[in-house]
Write a structure and sequence with these properties.
Low-confidence stretches: 1-13
Strand content: 15-25%
Order of helices and strands: HHEEEEEHEEEHHEEEHHHHE
Shape: globular
Helix content: 25-40%
Largest sheet: 5 strands, antiparallel
Strand order of the largest sheet: 1-2-3-7-6
Distance between the termini: 37 Å
Length: 273
């Protein structure tokens, strides 16, 4: 009885908001999987796992999809060398950490039921997804509208950088304070060198643009391998160059104040480093 009470107290007192990336990674890697259930949304058989360690429990979003097709025919277009893999969730998280964006939840690789998978930290204070928001026709409160727009511009630039072909409304998670988290990147990191939708690059965060300029092949290889290969890194660097060039041209023609804004420094305390 005492052991049970202690475990309950530990679970209730866990201050996840203060946990660092390293603490979350360690928990996801070492905690025991006590329950797994299949989620109803999505087409990649995503699951929600409950993990427990030392009386503390937390959930994870689990994706084990790992498919390759020489040619994939979608509803509106076809794609050569199609990949849909959990490995790109790991790459997205590592790129997020490399650029210090704090918009992709902690993600680690471990096995579940004998299969390698991406375990992503379940968002603690999720209020709804972007899909839910659209269904409710709900707008952010006026006091959050400015930061909301800035977050969406960063999201769009990040998706152009990683060539995310599947940023549907269900994988943008909105928290109670209207911060957003980006999940499910299994169809990102395409080898293509051009941008998916240049029209989505309306404005850019100054820090984001500066961090783009600093990306280089050695740093990307250290951060992203073995989850992406040379062709994916080639494509990412080419798209980086295209994004930087585009915004440099916009600044030259419209002026810095019309194109750039300051947002990312406000997320530096998202959770500990």
């Amino acid at each position: 009885m005492l052991a049970l009470l202690t475990a309950l107290l530990l679970a209730q007192s866990a201050d996840f908001a203060s946990w660092t990336h390293a603490q979350r990674e360690e928990f996801l890697l070492s905690a025991k999987v006590v329950k797994v259930k299949t989620l109803t949304q999505g087409i990649t058989n995503s699951r929600r796992a409950t993990l427990e360690k030392d009386g503390v429990t937390h959930d994870a979003h689990v994706q084990a999809v790992d498919e390759y097709k020489a040619q994939f025919q979608g509803t509106t277009s076809s794609e050569l060398n199609f990949k849909d893999t959990y490995k790109f969730n790991l790459a997205a998280y590592r790129l997020d950490r490399l650029m210090d964006l704090n918009m992709v939840p902690v993600t680690v690789e471990r096995k579940v039921e004998g299969r390698s998978a991406a375990f992503t930290w379940w968002i603690d204070d999720a209020m709804m997804t972007e899909l839910d928001r659209h269904k409710k026709h709900q707008q952010p409160p006026p006091q959050h509208m400015g930061l909301w727009n800035q977050q969406m511009w960063v999201l769009r630039a990040f998706d152009q950088l990683i060539a995310n072909t599947d940023r549907n409304l269900g994988n943008v998670v909105i928290c109670n304070n209207w911060d957003i988290w980006l999940i499910d990147h299994t169809r990102a990191f395409r080898a293509r060198r051009d941008l998916l939708e240049k029209k989505n690059l309306e404005k850019c965060d100054r820090e984001f643009l500066g961090r783009l300029r600093k990306l280089d092949r050695p740093g990307l290889e250290r951060a992203l391998k073995p989850y992406v290969g040379k062709m994916e890194i080639d494509g990412l660097l080419a798209r980086r160059d295209a994004i930087v060039s585009y915004f440099d041209q916009q600044v030259a023609s419209q002026g810095e104040a019309s194109v750039l804004f300051n947002y990312l420094p406000d997320r530096s305390g998202k959770y500990g480093h």
